[in-house]
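Exercise: predict the structure of this protein bound to farnesyl diphosphate.
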Amino acid sequence: MDGNGRWARERGEDRVFGHANGVESVRSAVRAAGELGIDYLTLYAFSTENWSRPRNEINALMELLVESLAGEVAELVRKGVRLCSTGDISALPESCIAALRNVEEQTSDCKGLTLILALSYSGRWELTEAVRRIVQAGIPAEFIDEDTVRKHLSMPDVPDPELLIRTSGEQRLSNFLLWQLAYSELHFTPVMWPDFREDHFKAAILEFRGRERRFGRTGEQIKSPTASPGGEIPKAE
Ligand code: FPP
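Solution:
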């Protein structure tokens, strides 16, 4: 969700104004994802690196998060959206943790879209935590394979994203879901996050649905998967 700060500055406003306007884009994305029948949507709301921002911006973001969670919970329940979080949640202010836990609990039985907020998150943090947990579990080196690592990630039951969307013209992963994005498609758009609304989201998904995903195989193997060695093509989630 990139470009809030620049969007605000272009309007002669404080960066926080951009974040506040970005909340409406979050609503739009959740609405569009629900309408398109998407199962999982992960929003990179606050990275590990974002802790180095000015204190007033961090505080404003945390307040915005608490306000948004409290204000949206009824709508999330109504829409059947289950809210989860990933990241070093213990590093967040108490008020944020309480607000998150409250919404997670209230939406825990929802069966529609799973909305994951990545907060105080980075891919390297997650991988470091996974290594720590593997060592703590005393798993011998010869038994460690990709599946072991996957099972020790923060949300092992969540499928890898099919599509990463990054707004604001930047073309980087910025430490997001480093393991999970291995085979994801990438969509970069110059649109700043506060301007990125339902139509942009839907257009990105439509364009993605037209792409051929090969997962390292040839075009011929994709066209007739049963005729090729190596088993089935991973199913798109
Ligand atoms: C990146 O733009 C955006 C963020 C660090 C915060 C995103 C937060 C929100 C949209 C609001 C709250 C979220 C929820 C889930 C309710 P930037 O500040 O890096 O923009 P810049 O690159 O233009 O400086």
